[in-house]
Each structure stands twice: as C-alpha cells, then as structure tokens.
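Q: Sequence in, structure out?
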Amino acid sequence: MAHLLGAEGLSITFGTRTVLDQVTLGLDEGDRIGVVGRNGDGKSTLMRLLARRAEPDAGRITWRGGVTVVFLDQADVLDHKASLRTAVIGQMAEHEWAADPVKRDVAEGLLTGLDWDQPVGALSGGQRRRAALARLLMGEHDVIMLDEPTNHLDVEGVAWLAEHLKTRWKPTEGAFLVVTHDRWFLDEVCTRTWEVHDATVDAFDGGYAAYTLARAERDRAAAVEEQKRQNLVKKELAWLRRGAPARTTKAKFRVDAANALIDDVPAHRDEVHLKKMATARLGKDVIDIENLTYTVPGPEGQPMALFKDVTFRLGPGERVGVVGVNGAGKSTLLRLIDGRISPEAGRVRRGKTVRSAVLTQEVEELRSREHMRVLEFMTEEKNVFDVGGKELSGAQLLETLGFNRSRQWTPIRDLSGGERRRLQLLKLLTGEPNLLCLDEPTNDLDTDTLAAMEDLLDSWPGTLVVVSHDRYLLERITDHQVALLGDGAIRALPGGVEQYLRIRAGKEPAPAVDGRTYRGQSTPATSPASAGESAPTGAFSEAQRHQARKVLKRTERQMEKLTARQEELHAAMAEASQTMDFDTLTGLQNELQAVETELAETEEAWLEASEIAES
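A: Exactly. Output:
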C-alpha cells in the first residue's frame, strides 16, 4: 500500500503542558483509523497537525506529492449569507452533481428535507454541521479527516455515514481518520485504532472492541510486570536487612481468550436487585401517559401532531432507549414525562413517590454557578452521597467521572464541554431522583468517560429513559428500545436499533400491534405473557434459530478439534526445529496452514450462526 502522509518527531506544547512529544506515525492507502483518548489529550490537535491546519513546535508533517486531504473541523466554517445550495455544491449545475452517484447519495443521506434555497444562517447548528459534512463528502479526496462527525446526526444518519465511508473507496484505496466518541461507529468503520495519551500515540489493530481488549491485555501485562518488580524490591529489601554477614554466606478460541480476560469481572448490572430497589423507591406506578396528543407548528406553520392519542407506560426499574429522526419528538417526550410541558389532550399520571430529573442537551444549570469551583458546586447542599449502597464523599464521587483532586478546585468557567457534561450528570444524581431522563448524554464525552458514566448508571436504582444516537450506549444501559417514526405513535422495537434501521430503510414494516401504544415490559399487568400475547420473535423464524443452534454445536466441536490439532502441530514443529529436521518441519508447516484456514472458516460459520441463534 502506498504511503499518503506521515509525521516524524512531532511535538507540541500549550503553556506548560506537552500534548504530543516526539510522535512518529503514518497514513497509508486503505487505512481506516479511529482516534480515541481522554478529552484534552490531543486527539483533535493531532488531526489538525496532520491536516496542516496547525504547526508543530518540533518535527515535520510530510504529504506524498499530489495527495489531496480534506478536514472537517468542529468549528462552524460555512458562509451564513450563502444559500445551502451554494455552500454545499458551489456553482455546479444540478444535472451535473445529480448524475454523480456519490454526490447524489450524500445529498439524500444528509440533506433530505432541507430547503436548498434558504440561507445557511437560517439553519440550526445541527443542520449546518450536516451541510458542512455534505460539502466535504461531495468532493473527491485521497484522505478524509473527520473530527466528531456523528455529532448532530441521528441513529439513521450515523448508520448512513458508516455505510458511505465503508463503500466510498475500494479496500486498498483512499484513507480516513476519524475522531469520535461513538463506539458503534468506531467498530463499524475502523480497521485500526490510535490511542492518544500521555503525549504519545499507541496503535492497535481493529475497531473499538479490539482496542478495548488489547488495552485490557496491555494493562494486565503491565500489572504482571509491576508485580514482578515489587517482588524484586522485596527481595532486595530482605537482602539488605540481613546485612553484610549474610552476603558472605476471533472466532472461538479468540472469544475464549477474551472471556478469560474478563471472566472475573461481575455482570455489569444486577437487574433483579435493581428492580427490587426501584420498586421499593417508586412503588408500582411510575408514569402512565394515556390518550395523549401534542402538536407543534409544522414547516409551513401548519400544526403537526408529534403524538396522537398515545398511551405510554413506564414501570419501576425500566430502562428504555428512544430513537427517531431529528424533529420526531424525542426531547418533547422527555419534557412531557418530566412535567415541564402539558399535553393538549389526554393525561400524564405520575406515581406519588416519583422524583424526576432531566439531563438536557444544554448546560444552562451551570451558567449561574460558573464562578464556583467544581467541589464547591457538588457539595453546596450536602457532603455525603449514597451510590449503589455505598457512601461516597463529594471528592470521591467526582473522581468516579474523571475529576482528579487538582481538577476539583478548577472554576466551572474553565471546564471543557465534556467536563461540564460530566458535572451536570453528577449534580443531577446527587438530587437522588428515581426517574432519570437523559437527552443525548454522550455529547462531548470521550470513550473512557462514557465507560465510567455507564458504570455509574449500572448501579443506579430507578427508571431510566435515554434519548441518544449512540447505539453502543443504548444497547449497553437500556433493556429495550422504542421508536418515534413521525406518525404520532410510539412503537416497541423488539429487534432493537437494528430493527429501527430496517424499518426506516423500508426493509421491514413497522410493528402493527397496537401501534400507538407502548407498555413497559417490566409492568406485570401489561406484559405479553399476562395479556395472552405471543412474545416478539425478532428478525428470524424459530426454525432458522433452531437450525442455527445446531450449527453452533457442530462448529464448536469442530473448532475444539482444530484448536487441539493446532497446538499439537506447534509442539511437533518446536521438536522438529530442535533436531533440524527440515523435511518434517515443512510438512508440519503446510498442515498447520491448512488447519488454520479451516479454523478461520469454521469461526466465520460459528459467528454467523450465533447472530441468528441469539436474535
């Protein structure tokens, strides 16, 4: 693969803090790289340097002759006076760009529903972000660099962008570099991961899941080395105490390897225990929305019904994810649940013991407290907090989401966007709500902070409603999902986000059973079993799942035999190499290659069957 661009001995310092120190790396044709790291560790800085949007203090950036590089910054770079059409395609005639399948796909994927003749300044911030991304993708470039491209995209938009990047070039052509906190997106499009930390960059093969596993193994190995070092130190100390007189006298075996790394980690959430605690705190009734109707002004001033005669019930301990296109009414639903707005018809009945809190997309709650330090803000009402049955001080609670002791004394006005988001969530939880609504909680958070937030929410006993475009988060912290499809109804998604995308793509009809009603799965009176209804079957028939389970058993036995034979061949090759028996060694090598090829094919069959069997 041809080299496209690279960095040699790259260093840059801001104030007294060195962000990158003697970093050397490169980008080749076919590279699909995701960049991860904590907020402030230099992900965007690295990308800006590689794109030649900033100059390093030391080192150099080299581009291959003739290479074209395009960069999507987080800043708003469009001319607000220009029309959307001019901002995206310039003066190109419509028949010219419409004849290009790539440009047409970009327009349909990002700009559907927008008036191309309106000025850019009339668009919302999210719409301008989509327009900037569309303008970038309309062009033909060798290297694409994207800084948080999934911000302001809904689930459908994120899925479109992933598919576009996967099919834009042939596997050995082009390259892209993406900074994002969307872990599903990283797994879907990236074949390599760069972790920016402690002024250096570590490279890993694979997307986010592979990176997480590799990092866990790296940390485990480091812990082993540290234990060895400590044992040596203890021996040295013992020797010194004795004094001078004493001195004179991937796949199945890859899945097993991954499981071995995490088999001592407890389940991420004890659902039975949390539901018992939630019922004790909430009682049996949480939210009952009955025959609700709510309208808003439409695009041309005509009333548009976001919800029409909807019934929606939430039970204690339920964890529900909400998906839908921008403008479908997701945030409005949260405000209705919280009681901030009232329906035009129908009613919202709240349990007597319900105490709700909403994490909004803005951080208005902090603006009047910007002069306060972080720890002062957290402890202005109380000093001790109950988290998962444990008492934590304000400082300990702040440390759970990445505020170290020195950072806790930082004025709120000096915090980054991600830090403000973390503080906003922690402050909400200290009010001890038992109904928590999160509106796009992943905005501005890095992957490590997201993992810490998920861990915190895992032990939180209450009812949770989450609006997010982050598929990884939804599937991680919620137990089931619902969709707003723009027809005034709330529909259950037994097949999760994947089912929603199939519905939006027209590959599957929307659930037709009681289409305007969603009843919480944790509410006994309305569960399918108690109502005499059949449970949803998902995307595959029972016969397909039964056949898949048979394939699983067969392939598991086959993989065990092949893995055992692989180990035997490795042992035999080691023995042959010691005796210098090259003829035997060649034969064993050929057999090993055949076994490994068969093992890889069997693993693929096992993975395909497992997806069907577990659907």
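Residues 84 and 123 are 9 Å apart (CA to CA).
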